[in-house]
Specification:
The chain is built from twelve helices and ten strands. The protein is α/β, with parallel strands linked by helices.
Length: 352
Amino acid sequence: MASVARLASQRCARYLGYTYCPAYSLPCKMTYFSATRKVLPDGVFPTMITPMNDDKSVDWAGVDLLTEWYIRSGVAGIFSICLSSEMFQLTNEERIAVAKRVADKAAGRVPVVAGATFEGSLEDQAELMNKMAPNVDAVVIITNQIGNMSDSDEVWMENVEKLMKLTGDKPLGFYETPVPKARWLTTDMMEWAARSKRFVFHKDTSISTSTMVDKIKAVQSVSGTSLKFYTAKSPFVKICMEHGGNGFSGVSPNFYPWVMSWVCRNMHDKSGHLDQAMRFISITDGTIQRRYPTSAKHYLAQEYGAPFKAVSRVISDQITDQDCFSLKSVREEMERLCQEIGATPVNITDCH
């Protein structure tokens, strides 16, 4: 672990315009690297689903409608081209086009980030990142896609450094996608990213709150960093923000974005409503993830009348009657919760 920490310090020093002094394990000032960074807002970044037609082509009108619905529901930003978007089943052309469409529809009202490292060599991945970058506020490195899962942390960091060099000064992010297998960042890597002045977004998929909190502390140890930390786990969002994290980026805003946004805005609530909302989020989390992302498309069509097809490239299973009843119950319980806490649902059919 010490070697990884030293490597992180060396690489971070190089990107901050320093050289590394092995005798003292400290960076020595040479020249300063500066970059203008748009600081992302705290709150909710929904992992955007991709509406599709019956033939599984992208439903572009649906992309526009969904983007508008997110924004009117109070989200802080949008994470396009992620696992919810069926990113592995999209072509590079579709990835670029979807991200651009979302950003164009958002029109600066909220920031848009997009995943951009998929198949091919690091050079191929950097090419896609460079093509994606003009359209979005940050291009996101998929942590398990930039090498072999058997690669050491040192090799992984070398790959990140190469992508950084190939992409100039573009704002970057990390996404610890759990599919096919998660590559989680260590606390040393998180501190390195926070010091690098290139990273502005991190979607964390840690499966323990203690690991998540340690990573948040690593980011916080860097004064003035522009790196923002968003948990992917709905039940973790309160703990994440209590310990200095910046919000949530995951599945549940595809069902009730206003609830997740309310939670992120009301972390100091003492009325009991915050705990009430967190119980609802934790209880319904398993239900909404069954047959996802098809379940989200079905939910928006069935419960809100959205002109979406329950079609996806990644899930072939059909929505069952049991799924329908469960999702209907989610809406009913959500609406009762909203009456209690004062959150306002937004009907997607009003977002044309």
